[in-house]
Amino acid sequence: xxxxxxxxxxxxxxxxxxxxxxxxxxxxxxxxxxxxxxxxxxxxxxxxxxxxxxxxxxxxxxxxxxxxxxxxxxxxxxxxxxxxxxxxxxxxxxxxxxx
Length: 99
Hints:
This protein is mostly helical. The protein is built from 1 helix and no strands. The chain has one helix at about 5-90.
């Protein structure tokens, strides 16, 4: 996201000390820390939810591809079975009395 170095943090701390005073600064720092933790946790939850949705979508796509491939194979098998039946024709085993 964005980088904050030690010098920037030190400058913010000095300004906060001057504005808030030494009595209120620890409480504000705790509150700010809690807010940052909540924001990070919320962001992590959103990120993990998006990753789960993407994984689910990928699984659906893979399942659809597998179904299409299975249907294609089934069609090829049916066509081959039809060809075999045509080539066997009436001169097959049933035409000779079960020999």
